[in-house]
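Late entry, evening session. Most of the bench is empty. Finally got around to the prediction I had been postponing all week. Sequence below, unchanged from the version circulated by S.P.
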Amino acid sequence: MKTGRKLTGGKYHISRKYKKYEADREQRITKLGKTRRKTFRTMGGNEKVVLFSTDTVNLINPKTKKSEKAVIKNVLETPSNKFLARQNNLMKGAIIETSKGKARITNRPTQEGSVQAVLIE
């Protein structure tokens, strides 16, 4: 940062520090396993539920428009990186194998505290 004054005569001001609400949190990854959740207090006294691991999914059948719970068996592929599927990471767009058939995850599990998916087959 330059010190002194600008050519126009204006002062150089130091940049401000981070506010607490601007600080990043540790990255959350939802894995396949026994269900683990945690609630965080957010701004305004609200709460955010974070899902760390789960083995169940709210499955929606597009033909009947009905939803039901199913057990997740395996993660077949992920949209962003094939290595994340090998680690059984659950994320939006991932194709999973359930007890009812193949399904695509339609929500963000780390943000909402549950997994929702639509049947493909």
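Two things to note before I forget:
The longest strand covers residues 66-77.
Residues 53 and 118 are 19 Å apart (CA to CA).
Will write this up properly tomorrow.
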